[in-house]
Design goal:
The complex is a heterodimer of chains A (about 280) and B (about 450). With about 280 residues, chain A is α/β, with parallel strands linked by helices. Helices cover about 35% and strands about 10% of the residues of chain A. Chain A folds into 2 domains: about 150 residues, 3-Layer(aba) Sandwich (Rossmann fold), CATH 3.40.50.700; about 110 residues, no CATH class. Chain B is an alpha+beta fold and about 450 residues long. Chain B has one domain: Cytochrome-c3 Hydrogenase, chain B (Orthogonal Bundle), CATH 1.10.645. Chain B contains 14 helices and 13 strands. In chain B, strand 11 and strand 12 form a beta hairpin. In chain B, helix 4 runs antiparallel to helix 6 and helix 4 packs antiparallel against helix 11. The chains are: A alpha/beta (about 280), B alpha+beta (about 450).
Chain lengths: ~280, ~450
């Protein structure tokens, strides 16, 4: 019989929410342990950071000098490196500091900044090492993790689908939050029409959760393939949003992504939106 | 006689949320230079909240912690609504109060079940992980993950997903759950009540370590029930203040070993979390939970931190009963939110996160943008207490064992003490000082 694949789950700067995709598997977590050997997963109690593994899952963004050494070491020890979540994939929410002066922020937040070891910028894993596969989401879901693990156990490459949220929405036959103008409803419902939804540029995978509760997608799953953020920004202008508001919408969960930055930079007041804070 | 110094390091703390380490030296049988190090890098949340629209706050602050996002969302909307929704209709306010308690119960159940089974229980039986423990005690671990899943299902009912849910907005919920969804959840809640009871009895029958200590318990309290979502801030030493008064009594300071701030109540460490809540409010548990508690060998107030695992289990039971009570006869309102009236000003809010008191402060301009924010999570508040507890518990162990102590057991005991507080290091590292302390 073949040995069970050895896996590791590593954490960098993050909220721990993507690791929960494993810890929230329920009884299937115990089943997973029958198919793979979990070698390193600190939150679950396995500590072997220097062990060689077949698959390393990485959560979080790279934020310190020590992090940089650690991510290179992980690459050397692992046959495949798979990022999970927004922080590891694009730098995530905390990459907003890359738009401002990180050193200034540190000085403003901490009375004794010399105690804090932190780079001025925070980076996605791909800025330092080759990444074999990316699982997107803020957070990634248990379903996504199960699909990736199942594919790998079967010896197949996991499927990278970065279709737009709009496709999920259409399959669920949801009313489009971006284009629909309700003609009936309470005055407040009418006032709240045509939401600035990021679905047209955001990767599917969550199940279109925000439109399912009647609100606009806020882009936590990252950029879809063939996304046109600049075109969507112009559509938002048509809805009456000012440039600053549009730039802030584009630059929230994945502000380190070039395509989003370029689109936001075209909005005239972007610099004011982030430097004037 | 030459003095003997043994440096002890736990470079990575396993089975806690986030990245931390413990360091101390044993010098002639004395614990010295004890430091709980937190090196999770800061993520600057208070900074990037500045300039953001109030409506984005619940989604941003959720990302402080993947394990307790609901706590951050609930505290933020409570604070912001106190300023921006002065005219909430009474009927909607009652409905929101109930549904937010249900949502919060989901998070307590999920977080406590995760902690008890995946993080803490392996200590009690000498396993490294719950996965290893499940081979010998499959029924116990399976029951734990079923309860954890129930908590997640409750959160998903109101938030569409359990980690970083998307249902909460300033003014209410985006959408009210359908009656059929509520009915399905009620069935699971009923079915798992006896499992929660069995969990409490199982933990109470275990021989847990003893470490009696003196400390101040701080929690919310309100007269209508066991405080989760609202209340005054009280202590068992007679403190009773409103949410707004928090900064006058509590102070934060920075320690060299940590990227998290420490907090003191009038110059002293204090405890927040499940044990502090039971110490202050046990009489307000659901009647069925009180009956269960009466049958146990442990009673509250109690000052053995190792009993906090029993406190968590009792809260799981209490939350299941509470959620059933609040969801029975469920009726969705015509519109589950009330519109905001923009105005400049300051606001604060406090709720009971799974790990204890969570306090938020926001200052807004007249366009509804955040001018400044301050967030004080429970783990920052507990950090000084954890260090004090480690010092006492480890010192007592050395006194008891004399020369016969083992470094392994000292390490293990240190980790176990830390886990009693279920520290969430991800939460603790992103926060701003109130004042610079000279």
């Amino acid at each position: 019989m073949m040995d069970k694949p050895r896996i590791a789950v590593h954490k960098f700067a993050s909220c721990d929410g993507c690791q929960l995709a494993f810890l929230n598997m329920g009884p299937e977590l115990l089943e997973l342990a029958n198919h793979v050997e979990i070698v390193h997963f600190v939150e679950a109690g396995m500590v072997a950071p220097d062990a060689e593994v077949d698959i390393a899952f990485v959560e979080g963004s790279v934020s310190t000098e020590e992090d940089i050494e650690r991510i290179h070491a992980i690459r050397k020890l692992s046959k495949q490196v798979i990022t999970i979540g927004a922080c590891a994939g694009s730098g995530g929410l905390q990459a907003l500091r890359n738009l401002a002066d990180g050193e200034q922020w540190l000085n403003e937040l901490y009375p004794q900044p010399q105690y804090i070891q932190s780079l001025n910028n925070t980076h996605p894993v791909k800025d330092y090492i080759k990444v074999d596969f990316e699982v997107w989401g803020c957070p990634v879901s248990t379903q996504q993790i199960k699909q990736v693990v199942t594919s790998l156990l079967l010896g197949a490459s996991p499927l990278q689908s970065k279709d737009k949220i709009c496709l999920e929405c259409k399959r669920q036959q949801r009313v489009c939050t971006l284009v629909t103008i309700p003609t009936t409803g309470t005055p407040k419902e009418l006032e709240n029409r045509q939401k600035a939804c990021l679905g047209p540029i955001t990767a599917a995978g969550c199940g279109a959760l925000c439109p399912s509760v009647g609100r606009a997608c806020y882009g936590c799953y990252g950029l879809a393939d063939n996304a046109e953020p600049a075109a969507l920004a112009r559509r938002f202008e048509g809805l009456g949003l000012v440039s600053k508001a549009i730039a802030q919408k584009l630059l929230l969960f994945h502000s380190h992504e070039d395509a989003l930055r370029r689109a936001a930079e075209n909005m005239s007041e972007t610099q004011e939106a982030f430097n004037g804070q | 006689m030459a003095s003997k110094t043994v440096p002890v390091r736990l470079p990575v703390l396993a089975r806690v949320e986030g990245e931390g380490a413990l360091e101390f030296a044993i010098r002639d049988g004395q614990i010295e230079d004890l430091q709980l190090r937190i090196f999770e890098p800061p993520r600057y949340f208070e900074k990037f909240l500045q300039g953001r629209h109030y409506s984005e706050v619940p989604d941003i602050v959720a990302r402080i912690c993947g394990i307790c996002p609901v706590a951050y969302q609930m505290t933020a909307v409570q604070a912001l609504e106190s300023l921006l929704v002065p005219d909430m209709p009474e009927e909607l306010a009652l409905w929101l109060n109930s549904m937010r308690q249900v949502l919060y119960c989901g998070e307590w159940i999920q977080s406590h079940a995760l902690h008890i089974h995946l993080l803490a229980a392996p200590d009690l039986f000498g396993f490294d992980s719950a996965i290893a423990m499940a081979k010998k005690y499959p029924d116990i671990v399976q029951r734990g993950v079923r309860l954890q899943a129930l908590g997640n299902d409750i959160i998903s009912l109101l938030g569409a997903r359990s980690v970083h849910p998307v249902g909460v907005k300033v003014g209410g919920f985006y959408k009210a759950p359908e009656t059929a969804q509520v009915d399905a959840l009620l069935e699971s809640l009923q079915a798992l009540t006896t499992e929660a009871e069995a969990l409490v009895q199982w933990l109470a029958a275990l021989e847990l370590p003893q470490s009696q200590q003196t400390f101040t318990s701080v929690s919310l309290h309100n007269n209508t029930g066991y405080a989760v979502y609202r209340g005054n801030i009280i202590s068992d030493q007679g403190l009773d203040i409103s949410t707004e008064e928090y900064p006058q009594y509590f102070s934060e300071f920075q320690a060299p070993q940590s990227t998290a701030f420490h907090a003191h109540l009038q110059g002293q460490p204090y405890l927040v979390g499940p044990l502090a809540r039971l110490n202050n409010n046990a009489a307000q548990l659901q009647p069925q939970t009180l009956t269960l508690l009466e049958s146990l060998p442990v009673q509250f107030p109690d000052n053995n931190m190792f009993n906090s695992i029993i406190a968590r289990a009792l809260e799981i039971h209490h939350c299941i009963i509470t959620a059933i009570a609040l969801l029975q006869n469920y009726q969705p309102p015509a519109q589950p939110w009330h519109p905001v009236t923009l105005q400049a000003g300051e606001c604060s809010g406090a709720t009971e996160a799974p790990r204890g008191l969570l306090w938020h402060y926001y200052k807004l301009d007249k366009a509804g943008n955040i001018v400044s924010a301050n967030i004080i999570p429970p783990t920052s508040q507990n950090q000084a207490r954890i260090e004090a507890d480690l010092q006492i518990t480890l010192q007592n162990y050395l006194l008891e064992k004399g020369e016969a102590y083992t470094e392994d057991r000292v390490r293990q005991l240190g980790e176990q003490v830390i886990r009693n507080y279920d520290p969430c290091i991800s939460c603790a590292t992103h926060f701003l000082r109130l004042k610079i302390h000279a």
